[in-house]
Every structure is written in structure tokens, then in C-alpha cells.
Amino acid sequence: MDNPTPLQAPIKPPTSPKPKHWTESVRGFDLLILTLVGISIVIGGLTFLRTNQLYTKLNPKWNGSLGSQAEAESTITRADVSIEDDDPTIGPADAPVQVVEFSDFECPFCGQFAPSVKSVLEDYGDQIQFAYKDFPLDFHEQALPAATAAQCVFEQAGSKAFFSFHDGLFADQENLGDDLFFELAEQIDNLDVETFRDCYKAQATLEEVQDDFNDGQLAGVTGTPATFVNGRLVSGADPAGLRRAIDEELNK
């Protein structure tokens, strides 16, 4: 006998795939939207950060708040720096702008800055009263002796003589020392050289130099040159910054 053929299940016709429910399509669409929104947020954030960094570089006075640059510039810190009777000066006391420089006769940047200051004083004339204050740095060996020598000249012969001596010191910074001090003193009219020598050797003006230095520290000076325009600091040897600050004060 032949073995019987095993029973087989009837073959069913193939069925078409079941259509997806509409909620599944919506979830896919939401996912696409959320992805696009996330990408937009990331791009926007990166753009903001780059813009913020660039704005800060171009506008260092901006503190990161949402104020305008004009608002940032309207708040300028000013120090209480005044011109005293014992300060060498150029220009009238009633000038609308007072410029006070804290300087060091051995400082190379001060030496570079000195001709620019002289040019500024010539250009602005009676609109400025300029005063020189001593700020000898302790790592400049000849800065303090030069300051006391210049103050001896001022005490005996006044501001004009002082600034003549001042110009001579800055013009020959490499040779600062007693020989140069005495040589320059001999070239100044109305200055008794022997009296000058006695004043210098006795360090009779040391207290005045120290007073200037203290004034500078109270005003926040940490290096030279430091120039104040109506109390507004122009730091470093910055002739353009000095002129800009003066113009802004005159245009108020």
C-alpha cells in the first residue's frame, strides 16, 4: 500500500499589508518637526555666541548686558586727581580741561610719549592745563634720583625751568645720573647750580615726590605713563587716546 498523503492546510491567498494608523504618521511628522526645530536652536545659539564674542572684541566696554554701546560709554570711571600749587604746570588754571600725567623719567614708554604730549599742548593751547606728577617705579634705578632733581629745579626756578629739565632728561634717558643732572642744571637760566646741588644731595624734595606717588596710587595708577583728562584715565603711551579724551571733554 502506498502510504497515505498527509493532510495539508489549505493555501490562503496573500493579503495586502495592513495600512498604518493615522496616529503613527502624525508621530513621524512630529519627530521631523522637532528635529528641524532642534537644529534651528543649535544654529541660533552658535550664531549668538559668535556675535556676542565679536561684539565684545569690538566693544571692550560692553559688559555683556543687553544695553547699547552708547549706554556703556556713558559711564566713564573718573578718579579724583587734582592739580596742586606744588605741581609743575603748563597752561592756565581756568582751562576747561585739566590733564595730569603720572610719569617716570627712566620709563622708555614715558620717553616715547613725551614728544606727543608736547605736541598736544601746542595744538590745544589755553584749552588745557597740564601738570606733571612723579611716579618713579622701584625697578628703575635712576627714576627716583631724576625725580628729586627735577623737583629741585622746580622749587628754585618754577615750571618753565622744570619742563626744560624734564625735556632734557627724556631726551637722554640712557645717561640718567648725577653728571647729566648737573649738566642740565647748568643750562637753565635763573637757576643757582650750587643751590641745586645742595638740594639734590640732601634729597630735599623726596617728600614731594612721595606725595605725588601716593596720589597716583590713590587714583589707581599701576604703571607709567598714566594720564588723566579731567579725572578720566588714558592708560599707557596713547597719543590718539589722549586727543580723543580731550576732544570729548571739550565737546561736552
Task: Please provide a written account of the structure.
The chain is α+β, with helices and mostly antiparallel strands. It folds into 2 domains: 24-61 and 66-73; 89-250, Glutaredoxin, CATH 3.40.30. It has 8 helices and 5 strands; from the N terminus they run ααββαβααααββα. A 5-stranded mixed beta sheet has the order 1-3-2-4-5. β2 (97-103), α3 (108-124) and β3 (128-134) form a beta-alpha-beta unit. It is elongated and about 100 Å long. The model is unreliable at 1-18 and 46-75 (pLDDT under 50).
Strand-helix topology:
Elements: H1 22-58, H2 69-73, E1 89-90, E2 97-103, H3 108-124, E3 128-134, H4 143-171, H5 178-186, H6 193-201, H7 206-218, E4 226-229, E5 232-235, H8 239-250
Helical coverage, percent range? 40-55%
- In the predicted model, the low-confidence regions spanning at least 5 consecutive residues are 1-18, 46-75
Strand order of the largest sheet: 1-3-2-4-5
CATH architecture of the largest domain: 3-Layer(aba) Sandwich
CATH homology-level superfamily of the largest domain: Glutaredoxin
CA-atom Rg in angstroms: 38 Å
Overall residue-averaged pLDDT value: 81
Order of helices and strands: HHEEHEHHHHEEH
Distance between the termini: 125 Å
What's the tally of helices? Answer: 8
User: How many β-strand stretches?
Assistant: 5
